[in-house]
Amino acid sequence: MEKDRLEAWPVPKLVITLALPAILAQIINVLYNIIDRVYIGRIEGIGEKALTGVGVTFPILILVSAFAYLIGSGGAPLAAIEMGKGDKKKAEAMLGNAFTALLIISVVLTVVFQVLKRPILLAFGASEATLGHGLDYLSVYLLGTGFVQLSLGLNPFINCQGKSKTAMFTVLIGALLNIVLDPLFIFGLKMGVKGAALATIISQAVSALFVVVYLSSKKSNIRLRLDNLRPKMPLLLGMMALGVSPFIMQFTESLINVVFNSGLQKYGGDYHVGAMTIIQSVMQMIFIVSAGLTQGIQPIISYNFGARKDDRVRQAYRIAFISITVVMVVLTGVVMLFPSFFGRLFTDSEGILQIVRKMLPLFVSGMMVFGIQQGAQCAFVGLGEAKLSFFLACLRKVILIIPLALVLPKFIGVLGIYLAEPISDVISATTAGILFKRNINKIFKRRDETS
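Below the sequence we write its predicted structure tokens.
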């Protein structure tokens, strides 16, 4: 049925069918961190410092998820392309290799960060007042690294089959459990930030278990089999080559958090670090809808590109550009109009709220045009174009945001850190649009010449 849908259903209907569950999954998934921050910010007596301390751990949390995307977001589109070609055996080999790679990565990340967590958090902008809260949260969270890797890294292999409702459910069960456990552990058992971290890893463990069981069952079009777990370097390198784009986007997000937090601590202090924690949480709220659209549309692009149904591919990426751009404009506009509302979701601290009111509209303003880059990224990854998607991922964050966040404050103080984001968003969106227009026809021609 999924094959018939991906090949034959009208593309607009297929986009709606796949994208809506993916959007809901993204909304649910972001609740893991958002709910933690909302509750942590309201712990009596220490809410402000606890929120800031946990905020300093975000670069590490983002980096952990980045490695899951390296494997999952690289392997799933390639598996979809192989399914479109009718090569189920190779698609299953990719799934098995992805499982093994995620387990190995989780062990390495857990050991490294547990050993180096204190100096890392100090380097990331923690102060003596907030360091303890960050250590408490991270020490517990890292125990669940394997669950995070499997739940995030394998879920795209469900989505790439066109089973977006199932992929959504794997996230839903964990997120709902997290919402229930957070107040129980934080306030009921008086565990504070450790309770928030424990609630998160238990929830991720349940999601991971469901994903593994589903992919091992007959319900999955491609199955997780023991004879595919042995690593094969050509498969792993291919997945990582395509996955390096979403990996870079996540990895550099971690670097940006480090640069932002250390700069804000230097030029502004703890209130600015706390405000940035809230601002980036709101940014996540904006991105989740467009990310869900991307997850829903990419399997359509990948499968039909492999099946040589080019009209459907072109229709799908056009819908991606239009829908993502509209979503970004509308959601960004709402955030810019009501910064106080979003700030008060996380804290009642007037010192932090004053910064959020002033800086949040400025910080997100460039996202009005950022849908262009997201549309291009969606298409390039779906088409298996590793080099172009990698360049776009590097352009915005490595080439633009990080240098701007380091240089601008030297001339205009803390304002320069907040300006780095919108400036880079506009430049990278413009560049992405130009690259897409120049390369899209070449991609189809190159596929036809090499096959």
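Residues 2-450 form one domain.
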